[in-house]
Amino acid sequence: MEESVYSLRDVFINPEHVVCLREDSQARRWLSRGLLPKGIDKNQHFTRISMNRGQSGLDVIVIGSPDTIEEQLRSSKQLLKG
To answer: Does residue 31 belong to any structural domain of this protein?
Structure first.
């Protein structure tokens, strides 16, 4: 089975829909295996954001530690890279 190569895109996150933030170690493994775009710092952290969509949920992985992402979500409606 051939592995996927992942890419980055801009996403807007509505803080009112965020249910949970947690560190995503799988994305760090993708980075160490070269599956993410070049230029991302090898020491970078990733956060999985779980959001409520009514009867279903949606998870988005963004660049940054959970503490950093929480601060961004609380302080302003900034664009997060996911």
So the answer is: yes
pLDDT tens sequence across 2-22:
455 888 898 888 888 999 999
Residues 6+ apart with CB under 8 A from 20: 49, 50
* Any domain includes 26: yes
Question: Is this structure's pTM higher than 0.85?
Answer: no
Does any domain span residue 48?
Answer: yes
Assigned token pair, 39: 């230029």
More confident call, 23 vs 72: 23
What's the number of CA atoms in the CB half-sphere (13 Å) around residue 59? 10
Count of domains observed in the chain? 1
Is 48 within 8 Å of 59 (Cβ atoms)? yes
In single-letter form, the type of residue at position 36 comes to L
